[in-house]
Each structure stands twice: as C-alpha cells, then as structure tokens.
Amino acid sequence: MNDSTDSAAQLKNFEDRIAAGEKIEPKDWMPERYRQQLVRMISQHAHSEIVGMLPEGNWITRAPTLRRKMGLLAKVQDEAGHGLYLYCAAETLGVDRRELIEALLETWSKSDFIEKTIWEKLISVLY
Ligand SMILES: [Fe+2]
Ligand 1 mean position to 79 CA, how many Å? Predict the structure, then answer.
C-alpha cells in the first residue's frame, strides 16, 4: 500500500492518536511512508551498531592483557546485541532482516573503507 491508497479516515485516526499522545505499535495501521521512514531510521541505526564493532574488534588481539581483551570482547558483543535488537525492531514493521543486511553489504561492498578481511568477519557475524 502507498500513501495514495491510505484512506483519509485511517490517516485522520492515526493523526488523532498521535495528537492524543497514544503510542503507535508496529502492527497498528500507519501511513506507508511513515512505516518506511521508521524502517530506514532503525535499520541505519542497526547498521551503525554492527559497523561500530569493527574498530574495537581490530584491537582484541593487540590488547596487552587478558583483562583488556575481555573488555574489548564485551564491547564488541554489546554492539552486536544492539544491532540485533534493532534489526528485530525493524522486522516488527514488516521487513526481512536479510534484506536489511544485504542492503548494508551492498552499500559497503562498494566502499574502500572496509578492507576485505574485516569485511569477511562482518559477514560472518551477520549471517
Ligand atoms: Fe551500541
């Protein structure tokens, strides 16, 4: 459904609910563009959490002590968890996690920013 097929009554009800301070849940009716924007924002946040693991991950083997390695591992694990929670949130809005991850991989595969070995690690975490 796109905005042209969203009925005026549904849109008014949606806007009235927001004006009344009600929460809109993922399964509730919402304008399609609104849903798409939520998916876009949530998936971008998820991607940034996953990509955020990379700098810390690079330092795990270089950390001088086991205690410091454990700290870095915990940080990387935290970021992975944040990303996965956000992918789950996006899925509640009706998208498939694999589609979001493939969009991330497609975008970043065109970049020279991430070297191949890191890229392979990222793919192994996501799948
Ligand atoms: Fe995070």
Answer: 4
Chain segment 36-79, per-residue pLDDT in tens: 999 999 999 998 898 888 888 888 999 999 999 999 999 999 99
Residue ranges near ligand 1 (ion) with Cβ within 5 Å: 49, 79, 82
For residue 24, the CA-to-ligand 1 centroid distance in Å is 25
What's the predicted TM-score (pTM) here? 0.78
CB 93 within 8 A of CB 100: no
Return the structure tokens found at 32: 């399609």
Query: In angstroms, what is the span from residue 33 Cα to ligand 1's centroid?
Result: 27
H-state helical runs in the chain = 8-19, 32-51, 53-59, 66-91, 97-109, 116-126
Cα 12 from Cα 7, distance rounded (Å): 9
